[in-house]
Design goal:
By secondary structure, this protein is of the alpha+beta class. Helix 10 links the parallel strand 13 and strand 14.
Length: 391
């Protein structure tokens, strides 16, 4: 059956606030792999609180496709004009350096991503595959017609990466570590599936925290007070201070998402002698088919306690994941140490287009070699499976 031709009207928006929130969220809800980070509330909070704006090197240029006849939003992508490569978690600093050494400008560039969020999920938001393909082609055409060095789509789904690759973009792969809920009854049931050494180490880490007199409160977004958010922000900023870097987010951002999407948020607050000493922010989403997912995001502490990081950022969220029957816990970028705690490697994707032919060819060769190394490393990691071996 011949598909009816649909005419689209493209929009290029300077702010997510220019698109109707209900229409955007309705479109997101229809996606095969949505995340809370694609919600209008999250993206608009980044702009409203000046975390992702032109002043911070993240100038929004959201792309929309509207049905020319009905005026309905049929496709959209969170696109930004970038003046640097911070906050992306798919590292292209070497590419930028090669441009600079040869007197070429790598910035500005176009990045389709959720700022500061290395979580794989839908990037080409669309009503159907026809609209999705048109949106992908629109992004590439926009990059070709703009005065930018490149286009980068970060952490799309594997299917979207295939679509973009078919349009001539170069695929890049990476590795993250995710924990899968195999229907565990409780935390001890999960521990029973690990090798003895791993199980013993986790119990020892948790015991050290208990013996230090630390207790925990799990505060759902609906119940979080302003004092809770102010303390979490203090912990968040402390983490960046310890790494001699500047935080991407601010208290106003946390307050805003705490008010607009509390059902997706969980604060884990560690206390000792009646005083809060550490905190982590967890984002989660329920899904009737998959059970939903939990995303480890940020953590920090104002006092040092051995193993407190593991308890606050991993074990408490894992317990919550099991209790709430969430299907997966995505631990964020990097971190092979997570494997000892039951997280397994998974492949992530990104897609890249460079305007300069010679550099595009060089990057293509680099990515081919890098991909071989990634696959070999992935296989090696799988050989160090932390779970019990059976027969």
């Amino acid at each position: 059956m011949k598909q009816e031709r649909i005419d689209y009207r493209m929009g290029l928006l300077d702010s997510p606030l220019e698109v109707d929130a209900r229409e955007w969220n309705a479109l997101v809800a229809r996606q095969p792999q949505p995340t809370p980070f694609l919600r209008h509330e999250f993206l608009s909070a980044l702009t409203t609180t000046n975390c992702a704006t032109g002043q911070t090197g993240w100038a929004p240029r959201f792309v929309t496709l509207v049905d020319a006849q009905t005026g309905a939003l049929t496709a959209a992508a969170p696109l930004y004009v970038k003046q640097h490569s911070y906050g992306e978690y798919v590292f292209d600093w070497a590419w930028a350096d090669a441009y600079q050494r040869n007197g070429l400008a790598y910035y500005p560039k176009l990045v389709c991503a959720v700022p500061f969020t290395p979580v794989q999920g839908t990037r080409l938001i669309a009503t159907d595959e026809h609209a999705r393909s048109r949106l992908a082609a629109t992004l590439v055409a926009l990059a070709e017609q703009s005065d930018v060095s490149s286009l980068h789509v970060l952490f799309p789904t594997e299917y979207e990466a295939d679509t973009l690759e078919a349009l001539g973009m170069m695929r890049r792969e990476g590795i993250q570590f995710h924990w899968i809920n195999d229907g565990y009854r409780d935390f001890e049931d999960f521990l029973s599936t690990l090798e003895q050494k791993k199980r013993k180490n986790i119990r020892a880490e948790r015991r050290k925290v208990r013996e230090a007199g630390v207790t925990f409160r799990r505060v759902r977004g609906e119940d979080a007070s302003d004092a809770d958010w102010r303390f979490f922000n203090r912990c968040y900023r402390q983490t960046y201070r310890e790494h001699f870097s500047s935080p991407y987010l601010n208290l106003e951002f946390f307050r805003m998402i705490g008010q607009s999407m509390p059902e997706n948020l969980l604060l884990v607050i560690a206390e000792r002698e009646g005083r809060p000493i550490a905190s982590s922010l967890i984002v989660y989403q329920r899904d009737a088919q998959t059970g939903g997912a939990l995303y480890g995001r940020y953590w920090g502490a104002v006092e040092h306690v051995p193993c407190l990081h593991f308890e606050t950022a991993y074990y408490q969220p894992l317990e919550f994941c099991i209790e709430e029957k969430l299907g997966v816990f995505e631990g964020g970028a990097q971190g092979e140490h997570k494997m000892a705690r039951g997280f397994m490697p998974t492949v992530t994707h990104s897609a890249h287009w460079l305007a300069h032919p010679a550099y595009s060819d060089a990057v293509a060769r680099f990515l081919e070699n890098e991909s071989n190394l990634i696959h070999a490393h992935f296989d090696e990691l799988r050989e160090h499976d932390p779970f019990k071996k059976h027969g």
